């Protein structure tokens, strides 16, 4: 018998909570619910869910507080589900350790896809916290060959520079997830790197010229305006 993944829904509005719960149950997940921040923390510490869906506006505390508390001791995937749609709210949540961010109202298939992505990332983590980075990443015509350090489009070498390759392979490693500019800069150039999005934008413009058919309408790497970049899901 397959063990079902367990999703904790932290949400104070009961109609939203039961809506999500119904979708997830129908798609073979076990669900738990919490209506307040303190209920959420009790449930998380005692049950260790596989994924947490976290509303930010809770009656007793802010969801960001829960996020920071959980991140001190757990890498359990957390997807923020919030009506707050400002860039700075998304950046703040992602930089505080959220794995993803969904804006209400959201579609069922979007929610399910984000949950699958979050679970896939925990399952591919190695014990040392790194993600295995050998073999190949495939999405449509795009291939990242981690062993040869090459990116291919329709089988042809895209001739990326070293910086461009590092950026694409980082996004491939976290495919399906939005990575903030800040996170990318720290991963590529170290914790002391200057927080300069301009360098990223220049690199991304060059990458898109090399890998996208139409750089203005990318099919591989998407921009989340004011937040960061997201690589398309692998196939
Ligand atoms: Ca709420």
CATH evolutionary superfamily of the largest domain: Response regulator
One letter per element, helices H and strands E, the order comes to EHEHEHEHEHEEEEHEHHEE
CATH domain topology of the largest domain: Rossmann fold
**Distance between the ends:** 26 Å
Mean pLDDT: 90
**Residue windows where pLDDT falls under 50 for at least 5 positions:** 126-132
Total number of beta strands: 12
Q: In terms of quaternary structure, what is this?
A: single chain
Q: How much helix is in the residues?
A: 40-55%
Rg calc = 18 Å
Task: Summarize the structure in short.
With 235 residues, this protein is of the alpha/beta class.
Describe the structure.
- This protein has helices spanning 14-26, 37-47, 63-71, 87-95, 108-123, 162-173, 181-189, 197-211, and strands at 6-10, 30-34, 51-54, 78-82, 100-103, 136-139, 142-145, 150-153, 156-157, 178-180, 221-224, 228-231.
- The longest helix has 16 residues, at 108-123.
- Helix 1 links the parallel strand 1 (6-10) and strand 2.
- It has two domains: 6-121, Response regulator (Rossmann fold); 129-231, Winged helix-like DNA-binding domain superfamily/Winged helix DNA-binding domain (Arc Repressor Mutant, subunit A), CATH 1.10.10.10.
- The relative contact order is 0.10.
- The strands form three sheets. The protein has a five-stranded parallel β-sheet with strand order 2-1-3-4-5, sandwiched between helices. A four-stranded antiparallel β-sheet has the order 6-7-8-9, with helices on one face. A three-stranded antiparallel β-sheet has the order 10-12-11.
- Helix 6 (162-173) crosses helix 8.
- Helices cover 40% and strands 20% of the residues.
- The two termini are 26 Å apart.
- The structure holds calcium ion (CA).
